Queue: 2 jobs
Job 1
Amino acid sequence: MRSLTEIQQPASITPRVSKILKSKYVPGILFLVAIGILSNSLGRDYPLIGGAVIAIVIGILIRQFLGVPAIFEYGINYTLKKLLKLAIILLGFSLSFAQIFKVGLNSLIIVLVAVVAGVFLTYFVGRLFGLQGNIPLLISLGTGICGATAIATTGPIIKAKDEDIVYAVNTIFAFNVLAVLFYPLIGHLLSLPDNQFGVWAGTAIHDTSSVVAAGYSYSNTAGDASVVVKLIRTLMLVPVAVILSIYISIKSAKMDRGANQVKISKVFPFFIIIFAGAAALNTIAPLPKTFVDTTADLAKFIILMVMASVGLGTNFIKIKSVGIRPLIVGLLSSVIMGSISLILVKVLF
């Protein structure tokens, strides 16, 4: 009869758990969890700045003044490349395609026209100012769709450098703060009705947290309208990510002389498809509020970890070398989005 020490544990569980605990990714992931907890706490205390920007800043400061131990590198890269996809998928459970019908046809037209025009005009302005690399595209997507989330999602797809992502996120952040302060003032000066202001704020302001802050500071009705409209913009991540993936894959295939065809696995961002599936599931059979809230909170926390990993991989000297041109482009893009959205709101409402 075998002793207890000789009895093997279930093969399907113990080796798997042991492998995870001994994984080279664990130290880096735990390090990012710690930064995420700190960023989340500070983000609640300073909502105008937000946890995402704080996470990036903490990451940059650690890299510049303390350095990043090699033991953390695997976990940091894994978070940036893999866990980000999990965060986007989880975010899908908090969305519903039914929201498209709640905002009405006019609101939907405003969102579509403003987003498309804003993205293309911002990209054009960026190139006009001589911005190189992926910064113009990242700023345009962050401006047009959903701020830091759009930048974090599309950055890896277009193979953007960490420095480009950081600059784009910080540019978006700067004008989010201004939007929270000035949009309600402009709304009152123009005597905008609550629904008009809500649609305007939800269409023009970049980041969800800033939309919420500006909308509800105007009124509860405006806040409700702004959140729904902003969620519609977030859903546009699906077609945008797919289009970008197809473009990048075809471009890469053409550059590779040995590639006769584009691989499907490279063309389609499957995590975005799952993201859309999660939103579709919540549309067909609304999920329990507890589950939706939990997955949304987890998604936001993982995004904080991703932002921290971006900061940890950033060379501050390269950021300084870019200069202030991206900030000027960010200012112009914010004015473009705000103006187009306001004109459409006044015409269609």
Note: Residues 27-348 form one domain.
Job 2
Amino acid sequence: RIVEITGGDIPSLLDEGKVVIVAGFQGVDRDGQVTTLGRGGSDLSAIALAAALKADVCQIYTDVEGVYTADPRIVKTARKIPQMSYEELLEMASLGSKVMQARSVEFAQKHGVVFEVRSSFNNEPGTIVKAEVPSLEDVVITGVAVDKNQTKVTVTNIPDKPGAAAEIFRELGEGGIIVDMIVQNVGRGGKANLTFTVSKDDAPKVERILADACAGLEGASASVAGDIAKVSVVGTGMRSHSGVAAKFFQTLADNDVNIQIITTSEIKISVGIALEDAQKAANALHEAFGLNG
């Protein structure tokens, strides 16, 4: 975690017309030891320096030309987004888009750093990311995201009483597990069922944690039900437009896509579906919300 940023001699060197090259991905801790910034540290270094120097814009050069309305490998008609808000990119990053790590976007948002994601291989404009973008009345959805690294977990026969679910999630939290989509069924006969998703990589650890947690919950049992895909639509236009959910779910129904789990926020709708339906669902939603161009 970055606690302080200093520009050092960079401003004076720039004033002298010199080109300054700074090593990214690293910093100095309180003991003066050089340490790495972790995953996404290079982008974070650039944005942190831009904040310290009060730069007008920070350009992030990558192997893609910007942020697209969907992953072009999944949706062939995906288009580059000229500009988008921090909120939208944060949602897309958390939903499976791999253009930038969420922590870099969060830092830019906190310090008001405008940045551009663009290609290292050409001079084409990229995607500008900033606090607010001009509102277009007909633009409701900015992009479609697909995350195939999800596993569905179900815990059955949980005592239907306060604190039971909290105990399960406390154990998972202490084990370093990040839980994503969650749904709890209405209890019957004093019992309830809980379904949620976790990263596929965490599935074996989750099984071990839940085996211990369920032992103390009066007959509860857990199962890792298998890998699923999370497909989402994101857009700040959802705040001011009705009918988005209706179109979303009708589009999936028209394409014979069965929904296993749902989660929403103010600017996104996500569903867990079978892995084999992910590409079909993403393409159908991309077209339904007018993102094909």
Note: The chain is about 30% helix and 30% strand.
